[in-house]
Structure formats: C-alpha cells, structure tokens
C-alpha cells in the first residue's frame, strides 16, 4: 500500500476548499506514477496532477489534483473525514 493516510491540517483544508486538492502521506520510495495509479484504482477518480515533497518530519507528502472538481470532497467524505 503506497498511501499511508490523508494529511488533514488547516492549510490542507483550505487547499481542498479553494483548489480541490487533497494531501496524503505516502511511502518514501513511491513515485508520482505509483501514487497516481494507486489513487485512481482505490477511489475510481481520474487524477490530473501529483506533486510530492518531503515534510520536516522526513515523511513524503503528495498533493493531488483531480480532474473532477468535486472528486476531492467526495473522497474525503468516503473516508469519513468530512
């Protein structure tokens, strides 16, 4: 499993509302293509873009943009976060 868990902070919530982007903590060795494939198969939504970065704690964070603007909110509600 490449995805560890969703990364939900105040800033991540503002990105969700303003830009329809989700953030996930992922395995350190995961590539952008791996993350995209995993998200599309798990949630059956088309991923438009994946950006990755390392957090100050040494974890890898993926910022994901979906093709459908409402997909991010739907996924978080499916996960029971919103």
Automatic annotation (TrEMBL):
Keyword Ribonucleoprotein attributed = yes
Q: How does it assemble?
A: Part of the 50S ribosomal subunit. Contacts protein L29.
Q: Which UniProt keywords apply?
A: Ribonucleoprotein, Ribosomal protein, RNA-binding, rRNA-binding
Write down the SUPFAM superfamilies for this protein, in alphabetical order: Ribosomal proteins S24e, L23 and L15e (SSF54189)
Q: Which PANTHER family does the UniProt record give?
A: 60S RIBOSOMAL PROTEIN L23A
One example GO MF annotation: structural constituent of ribosome
Its GO CC terms?
ribonucleoprotein complex; ribosome
Q: Which family does it belong to?
A: Belongs to the universal ribosomal protein uL23 family.
Q: What is this protein called?
A: Large ribosomal subunit protein uL23
Task: Say if the entry is tagged with keyword RNA-binding.
Answer: yes
Record function comment: Binds to 23S rRNA. One of the proteins that surrounds the polypeptide exit tunnel on the outside of the ribosome.
Q: Could you tell me which Gene3D superfamilies the record lists for this protein?
A: 3.30.70.330
Species for this entry = Methanoculleus submarinus
Q: By its UniProt entry, which InterPro entries does this protein fall under?
A: Nucleotide-bd_a/b_plait_sf, Ribosomal_uL23, Ribosomal_uL23-like, Ribosomal_uL23/eL15/eS24_sf
